[in-house]
UniProtKB/TrEMBL annotation:
It comes from the Bacteria. This is Group-specific protein. It comes from Texcoconibacillus texcoconensis.
């Protein structure tokens, strides 16, 4: 998963989450959606966006890694 210097808005992250909904484990989708309701800081928004970016095209190993990242982010709250 690569990172970039672009700050992603809450709306962009919510759209990316909705775009990937059918590819994410149900519980993880719900936890991530709940996280976005808590007005997360910019770093969390960026991290969530990059975990979701092209999630549907990722290998199974890469998806597992991204799932762990999303789990860690959602468990912080």
């Amino acid at each position: 998963m690569s990172s970039c210097n672009i700050d992603h808005s809450l709306e962009d992250v919510q759209q990316k989450l909705n775009d990937q909904k059918n590819h994410l484990p149900t519980g993880l989708y719900e936890k991530t959606a709940s996280l976005l309701q808590t007005e997360p800081n910019q770093q969390i928004l960026n991290d969530v966006f990059h975990a979701l970016k092209k999630y549907d095209l990722a290998s199974d190993d890469e998806k597992q890694s991204r799932n762990k990242t999303l789990e860690q982010l959602t468990n912080r709250q």
